[in-house]
């Protein structure tokens, strides 16, 4: 316990950093994921191509490589941001591809006739998608979206290698101070467990409230 109690502020700072990364990157991933899912089912070919390219590239790119591309590549184009924002951008964009595919699978579960009925009533594609299709699709994809955001929380550990304050990076100063590396990692694991169980609890509540009964 002395590893934790003697360095409670250090662990707290790392845990707060991980929570901030997870929350902000999750919001970005959800927004981009919903947008790209809309593109993938849009009647406009160029939008479908953009959505497909987004998902194909990001799902098949290692997250570490994406971090390097964002942190080292964007400043070459004049975009200089704090490392934390770069990490949020990398995590959010990467996770959005998986959110998009989860949501698209939910859209495919909505009967085609509902979209046709909406169009026959004069609703536009955005109205049909936003008012009829997406609300039903979201109800069926709450569990996979929750699992994807849990994976995002664990993936945030990569940000520590890019000078971003997060939970895994706590082991470095603890190791330099001579604390047991095993117990340092035990408490780090407990911190990640708190974050992931919190996300799981939130999505369990959402599933009970909005999910499709099976």
Strand portion = under 5%
Return the structural class.
mainly alpha
Biggest sheet, open or closed, and with what strands and sense?
none
Number of strands: 0
Helical content (DSSP H or I, runs of 4+): over 70%
Low-confidence stretches: none
Q: For the CA atoms, what is the radius of gyration?
A: 20 Å
Shape: elongated
Number of continuous helical runs: 10
What is the element string, with H for helices and E for strands?
HHHHHHHHHH
Membrane topology: Multi-pass membrane protein
Transmembrane segments: 21-41, 53-72, 79-99, 181-206
Protein name: Amino acid ABC transporter permease
Keywords: Amino-acid transport, Cell membrane, Membrane, Transmembrane, Transmembrane helix, Transport
Characterise the protein shown here.
The model has no long low-confidence stretch (mean pLDDT 85). The longest helix is centred in the first third of the chain and has 33 residues, at 8-40. 76% of the residues lie in helices and 0% in strands. The chain is an all-alpha fold. It starts with a helix and ends with a helix. The protein has helices at 2-5, 8-40, 45-59, 63-73, 83-107, 112-120, 125-140, 142-155, 171-176, 181-210. α6 (112-120) runs antiparallel to α7. The protein is elongated and about 70 Å long.
């Amino acid at each position: 316990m002395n590893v934790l109690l003697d360095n409670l502020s250090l662990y707290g700072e790392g845990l707060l950093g991980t929570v901030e990364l997870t929350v902000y990157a999750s919001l970005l991933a959800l927004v981009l994921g919903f947008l790209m899912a809309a593109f993938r089912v849009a009647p406009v070919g160029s939008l479908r191509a953009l959505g497909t390219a987004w998902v194909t590239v990001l799902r098949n790119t290692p997250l570490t490589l994406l971090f390097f591309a964002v942190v080292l590549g964007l400043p070459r184009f004049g975009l200089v941001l704090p490392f934390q924002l770069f990490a949020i951008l990398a995590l959010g964009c990467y996770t959005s591809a998986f959110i998009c595919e989860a949501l698209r699978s939910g859209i495919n579960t909505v009967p085609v006739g509902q979209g046709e009925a909406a169009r026959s009533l004069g609703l536009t594609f955005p109205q049909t998608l936003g008012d009829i299709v997406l609300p039903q699709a979201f109800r069926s994809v709450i569990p996979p979206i929750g699992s994807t955001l849990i994976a995002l929380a664990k993936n945030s550990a990569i940000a520590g290698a890019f000078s971003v304050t997060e939970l895994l990076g706590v082991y470095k100063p603890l190791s330099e101070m001579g604390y047991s590396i095993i117990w340092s990692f035990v408490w780090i694991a407990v911190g990640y467990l708190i974050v992931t169980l919190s996300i799981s609890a939130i999505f369990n509540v959402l599933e009970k409230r909005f999910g499709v009964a099976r």
